[in-house]
């Protein structure tokens, strides 16, 4: 009896430790891949380099995350969520805050402020994905999928804004969604921040001001 209890206790003790080690390994792999993809490019990065940078074996990269296209997807999803795992849009804190805001102006301000934190993580990864999409069919499919997913979310956002009664009546929801979709893109962010030297905070202020002037009935 004593031996059985002791053995069970030992298993209970090691299970959380193994989970923590697995999470740390995954984090190291994703961080290594993110750095390599955004500095060297997707095509020039090998799984062997990711393994070396993260301090694990090549087989561990495959077993923990997967092939290179899967790795790129996970790097994007974790950059978007700010965690080591993907988070559905409806569960993200800023999305919940947007939906709780009573006016369109407050919703737009909340999203613009969220992008100040999100864009510096996501934009370099999305640029790497866009470059990879020009050469790799799997990456091209991933790029299209993520673009359409974001467009769908923007249409939901437009409907949420419309429900406040604050939007210009001469704009359709699709037009509102397309305006926000384009201006919240990695390309738009990188033009200002990487090429024109704006800070993320200044970019966020610009988005809020532009969206307010473009979209609201009474800016």
UniProtKB/TrEMBL annotation:
Keyword Transcription regulation in annotation: yes
Lineage, top-rank taxon, reads Bacteria
Note down the stretches annotated as region Disordered: 1-20
Q: Which regions of the protein are recorded as binding DNA?
A: 46-65
Cited InterPro entries = Homeodomain-like_sf (IPR009057), HTH-type_TetR-like_transc_reg (IPR050109), HTH_TetR (IPR001647), Tet_transcr_reg_TetR-rel_C_sf (IPR036271)
Q: Does the keyword Lipid biosynthesis apply?
A: no
Cite the HTH tetR-type domain residue spans from the record.
Answer: 23-83
Pfam family of this protein, just one? TetR_N
Sorted alphabetically, the keyword list is: DNA-binding, Transcription, Transcription regulation
GO molecular function annotation: DNA-binding transcription factor activity; transcription cis-regulatory region binding
Q: Which PANTHER family match?
A: HTH-TYPE TRANSCRIPTIONAL REGULATOR BETI, HTH-TYPE TRANSCRIPTIONAL REGULATOR RUTR
> What protein does this entry describe?
TetR family transcriptional regulator
């Amino acid at each position: 009896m004593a031996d059985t209890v002791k053995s069970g206790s030992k298993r209970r003790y090691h299970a959380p430790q193994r989970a923590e080690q697995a999470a740390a390994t995954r984090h190291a792999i994703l961080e290594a891949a993110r750095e390599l993809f955004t500095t060297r490019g997707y095509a020039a990065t090998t799984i062997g380099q990711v393994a070396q940078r993260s301090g694990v074996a090549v087989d561990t990269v495959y077993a923990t995350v997967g092939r290179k296209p899967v790795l790129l997807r996970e790097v994007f999803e974790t950059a978007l969520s700010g965690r080591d795992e993907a988070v559905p849009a409806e569960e993200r804190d800023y999305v919940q805050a947007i939906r709780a805001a009573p006016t369109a102006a407050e919703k737009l301000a909340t999203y613009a402020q969220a992008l100040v934190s999100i864009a510096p993580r996501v934009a370099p990864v999305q640029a790497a994905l866009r470059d990879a999409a020009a050469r790799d069919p799997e990456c091209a499919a991933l790029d299209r999928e993520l673009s359409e997913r974001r467009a769908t979310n923007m249409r939901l956002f437009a409907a949420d804004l419309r429900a406040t009664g604050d939007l210009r009546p001469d704009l359709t929801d699709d037009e509102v969604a397309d305006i926000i979709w384009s201006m919240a893109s990695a390309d738009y962010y990188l033009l200002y921040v990487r090429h024109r030297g704006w800070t993320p905070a200044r970019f966020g202020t610009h988005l809020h001001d532009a969206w307010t002037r473009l979209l609201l009935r009474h800016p």
